[in-house]
Design a protein that fits this description.
Order of helices and strands: HHH
Distance between the termini: 38 Å
Number of helices: 3
Shape: elongated
Structural class: mainly alpha
Number of strands: 0
Largest sheet: none
């Protein structure tokens, strides 16, 4: 079982990835451009949902 600090670190890394995608979406990057940077379609979908529900 992982310890709390590892869990917090993992969640932080995931949030940073989603935040980076949100910035790319705001800068009008296409999905293909974002995917070419190493992000997944699932991450893009999460970022879109977070971005558009917080309007």
């Amino acid at each position: 079982m992982c310890n709390l600090s590892e869990l917090v670190e993992e969640r932080g890394a995931k949030r940073e990835r989603i935040d980076a995608i949100k910035r790319m979406l705001k800068a009008n990057f296409t999905k293909d451009q974002i995917i070419s940077c190493g992000y997944t379609e699932e991450e893009i979908e999460r970022a879109e949902n977070a971005l558009y529900t917080n309007v």
